[in-house]
Write a structure and sequence with these properties.
The structure holds 2 protein chains of 2 kinds. Chain A is an all-alpha fold. Chain A is 83% helix and 0% strand. The chains are: A mainly alpha, B mainly alpha. Chain B: The chain crosses the membrane at residues 15-33, 71-94, 101-119, 131-153, 165-182, 202-223.
């Protein structure tokens, strides 16, 4: 089998697995009436969702995914300060876009100052 | 009057930060695909079919080394998180036909998930799948076009701008967490996820997100007051 064929095999097998992960729970759980029943399972997934959102933020702050090197990286401090300031701004303002642009601008300014 | 088209357009509008981020992030992914020896069709197929920048970056690195099986395993391990995201969003998408669900689910990514989940959970949408499709319609084609652009025009974006743009999405996600204030249990879930996921990722590479999310959810369920479970 040529290298080109092997690359396609990796892509297609990876795509099939990814599609399975995306579709199986959706197909099973869309048949259940969890929203109206306020079930434990729904609350469990609600908690998990917010943990995922926080986790994505945390993973982005630890650039490169290496925790040990990130601890001494000033970009982590800049990122955490930006996250805290954006959060505080969101509590004062309605909507998402203004805090978003303010947060990105703040990150840029802090990066220039610290890095 | 609310119509499916209006909620679709609302989803497109709310996906603006995702579109901005993808337009930079997938340029980097496309350039990486080119540098790793993939042809343009393979780079585009990877984005269209796998649709997860972290998995694509890891896989193309390993493909460049001729490590075919590890490349496949990297995609499987990193995209395993979609199992939990799909399970979380499913109850809020209403009861559309199976065909529509199966067609739309390919565009579920961490970003389209997070952008859709909070408005869906708030229950303010009459056509939740239309909203989700709007978010996806603005995000998914952007990723594909940006991949092609990155493949054809490597190093088009200066590193400082890349670094700033990669922060757009996490900052946007902070605005989602702020919206749950003052529901402290959901906020606690977000903060615990933020702190613990990088630690878990360093211990269990690829599984940090899903392991942390499950552990945090289990912990908060255990800590719920038994007498009044709906006071969160």
């Amino acid at each position: 089998m040529s290298e080109n064929h092997l690359i396609w095999l990796v892509i297609l097998a990876g795509a099939a697995a990814s599609y399975g992960f995306r579709s199986l729970p959706l197909l099973v759980m869309s048949r259940l009436d969890l929203v109206d029943s306020g079930s434990d399972l729904l609350r469990f997934f609600d908690y998990a969702t917010y943990a995922i959102i926080g986790g994505i933020i945390g993973s982005a702050l630890v650039s490169g995914g290496e925790l040990t090197s990130a601890v001494s990286d000033p970009r982590l401090v800049v990122g955490l300060m930006t996250v805290a300031a954006t959060f505080a701004l969101c509590l004062k303002l309605r909507g998402n876009l203004l805090p978003l642009f303010a947060g990105v601008g703040l990150y840029q300014v802090l990066s220039w100052l610290a890095l | 009057m609310t119509t499916p088209a209006r909620e679709f357009l609302k989803g497109c509008r709310n996906a603006l930060p995702v579109t901005l981020t993808f337009s930079v992030l997938f340029v980097v992914v496309g350039a990486h695909s080119q540098a790793s020896g993939l042809d343009l069709a393979q780079g585009l197929a990877l984005t269209a079919l796998v649709f997860a920048a972290p998995a694509q970056m890891a896989a193309t690195d390993l493909i460049a080394q001729g490590a075919w099986l590890p490349a496949l395993l990297a995609i499987i391990v990193i995209n395993f998180r979609f199992l939990l995201m799909s399970a979380s969003i499913a109850p809020y998408l209403g009861k559309p036909g199976r065909g529509r669900l199966l067609a739309s689910v390919q565009m579920l990514s961490a970003s389209t998930f997070a952008t859709s989940f909070i408005p869906l959970r708030e229950g303010s949408l009459q056509y939740p799948l239309s909203y989700f499709l709007g978010v996806c319609a603005a995000s998914f084609p952007t990723a594909v076009i940006a991949t092609a652009t990155g493949y054809l025009v490597q190093d088009a974006i200066p590193p400082w701008l890349q670094q700033t743009m990669t922060m757009v999405l996490p900052i946007y996600f902070v605005t989602f967490l702020a919206r749950v204030w003052p529901r402290t249990r959901f906020l606690a879930a977000g903060v615990l996820g933020l702190v613990l996921t990088p630690v878990a990722n360093s211990l269990l590479p690829g599984f940090g997100l899903i392991v942390t999310a499950l552990a945090v959810a289990a912990l908060l369920m255990l800590l719920e007051p038994k007498a009044c479970p709906k006071t969160i």
